[in-house]
Design goal:
The chain is mostly helical. Helices cover about 65% and strands about 5% of the residues. The protein folds into 3 domains: about 5-40 and about 45-170, MgtE N-terminal domain-like (MgtE N-terminal fold), CATH 1.25.60.10; about 180-300, Roll (CBS-domain); about 315-485, Orthogonal Bundle (Tetracycline Repressor, domain 2), CATH 1.10.357. Helix 8 crosses helix 10 (about 155-165) and helix 19 (about 350-380) runs antiparallel to helix 22. About 30% of the residues are buried. Keywords: CBS domain, Cell membrane, Magnesium, Membrane, Metal-binding, Transmembrane, Transmembrane helix, Transport.
């Protein structure tokens, strides 16, 4: 298989493996050099010289390897390395790639890289970036660096950067690109083609040209494909598309990303309240939004406050994780008190201790399925709070059927194991009721979170598990106390 035929994921893994191998070799050479620092006799000078040469040769080889890689691949490698190795690799990266790499790495890793750079290095790294890219990095940069970079921009670029910084990072205005091609509706397609040939290269992801009037208001778009096949003498106004998906700068970036996915967009115009064209959104930014939202949902469901550097200091990781662990500890204590309240029942019928984790475990699994589906629907705008009642009834039906089927199955097994038909019936009833509870909480938790303006995914996995554990123990042991003892 040739290099071009290999999958991107395979190439990424191979690049990471090669860099890690070079770093391991570097570590061994450094250990040898460290030993050579001890007082030695004259004959030892030659081995020390050889090891020093190996040190420089290995660094050169690592530097050459990094020079061959795309900034996004280097960002991937940096995220997979412990801090001391990450900083070593970061120091060997070509300075002209620093800005692009800072844009690509995760927020947590970016923080560690910026801390290792002085002000002059940071200014040099970001001064060639566009206004939209600078806006992405500005919240993480020292304020003095931002001021210095802004001072080096021309009036137009400075105005663009200030405009982007005036919006929250989750709004369209913070993500819009200012590099775009715009034309008038009254020119011919031939004039447009001649105009495009004047560019050294078109802005990235240019799939359409924006048509404006004298007041810069958006009138329509002319796709590049349409332009190429149209009569050269035809007026742009006659061949342009007037039904255009547009966005306002203050709209939510998440909503824009969903629209890009729905309508298969590559670029889309951003307009102000008067319909004036002020920028564009591109698919690469929207993909980043979708990825970040997906990662955020996964982290929030696990109770993590923010994205975490894999190799972050222990203290930082503890700060990120402690809150929901504390909540989980409280809910686990409640569950233990529920079990303690039925201690006499468990002593009289030991089988209860063996069977009650099954009831709680199945309930937790079912609840997580429901809550995942609800959170996804809320995130994609497919579910309105007014529909929660209808959805709860549907989930109730699913839980009752699953409870009777799988609760009946485990009830038969309990009857066979413990020779008690009554225990089998209690097991079936407890399983069904706990699945009903799981369905109810699976709908209730995220919809209440949404209603009160919180992220519906925040800690949902922890909360649903707490409800189904405590509720499952109470239901099962309560039924057993009533009908078996």
């Amino acid at each position: 298989m040739t290099v071009l035929e290999r999958k991107p994921a395979d190439r990424l893994h191979d690049n990471l493996t090669q860099v890690q191998r070079l770093l391991e070799r570097q570590r061994l050479v450094d250990e040898l050099l460290h030993r050579q620092d001890e007082p030695r006799q004259e004959p030892a000078d030659k081995p020390q010289l050889v090891e020093s040469l190996l040190h420089r040769q290995n660094l050169t080889e690592l530097q050459q390897k990094l020079a061959q890689l795309h900034p996004a691949d280097i960002a991937y490698i940096l995220e997979a390395l412990p801090l001391h190795e990450r900083l070593l690799v970061w120091g060997l990266v070509r300075s002209e790639d620093d800005g692009e790499i800072l844009l690509e790495v995760s927020d947590a890793v970016r923080e560690s890289l910026i801390e290792a750079m002085d002000s002059d290095e940071l200014v040099a790294a970001v001064e060639d970036l566009g206004a939209d890219e600078l806006a992405d990095l500005a919240p993480d940069l020292p304020r003095q660096v931002v001021y210095e970079v802004m001072g080096s921009l021309d009036d137009e670029e400075r105005a663009r950067l200030q405009s982007a910084l005036s919006y929250r990072e989750d709004q369209v205005g913070a993500l819009m690109d200012f590099e775009l091609v715009k034309i008038r509706a009254d020119v011919s397609c031939e004039v447009v083609l001649r105009y495009l040939r004047r560019f050294d290269e078109l802005p990235d992801h240019t799939d359409k040209i924006f048509v404006i009037d004298d007041d810069e208001r958006l009138k329509g778009v002319l796709s590049i494909r349409k332009l190429l096949v149209s009569d050269p003498d035809a007026k742009v106004g006659d061949v342009m598309a007037t039904e255009v998906v547009t966005f306002r700068a203050d709209e939510a970036a998440e909503d824009a990303a969903l629209a890009f996915e729905r309508y298969d967009l590559v670029t889309a115009p951003v307009v102000d309240g008067n319909g004036k064209l002020i920028g564009r959104l591109t698919v690469d930014e929207m993909l980043d939004v979708i990825r970040e939202e997906s990662e955020s949902e996964v982290l929030n469901m696990a109770g993590l406050k923010e994205e975490e550097d894999l190799f972050a200091p222990v203290v930082d990781s503890v700060k990120n994780r402690w809150a929901w662990l504390a909540i989980n500890l409280c809910t686990a204590f409640v569950a233990s008190r529920v079990i303690g309240a039925f201690e006499q029942s468990i002593q009289q019928l030991v089988a209860l201790a063996a069977l009650m984790p099954i009831v709680a475990g199945i309930g937790g699994n079912s609840g997580n399925q429901t809550i995942t589906m609800i959170v996804r629907a809320l995130a994609m705008g497919q579910l309105q709070l007014s529909q929660a009642w209808r959805l709860w009834r549907k989930e109730l039906g699913v839980s009752v059927i699953n409870g009777l089927v799988w609760g009946g199955a485990i009830g038969i097994i309990a009857w066979w194991l413990y020779h008690s038909f009554s225990l089998g019936l209690v097991m079936t009833a407890a399983m069904t009721l706990n699945l009903v509870l799981a369905a109810t909480m699976g709908v209730l938790i995220p919809t209440l979170m949404q209603k009160f303006g919180r992220d519906p995914a925040l800690g949902s996995s922890v909360l649903i598990t707490a409800c189904t554990d405590s509720g499952g123990f109470f239901i099962f042991l309560g039924l057993a106390s009533l009908f078996l003892l």
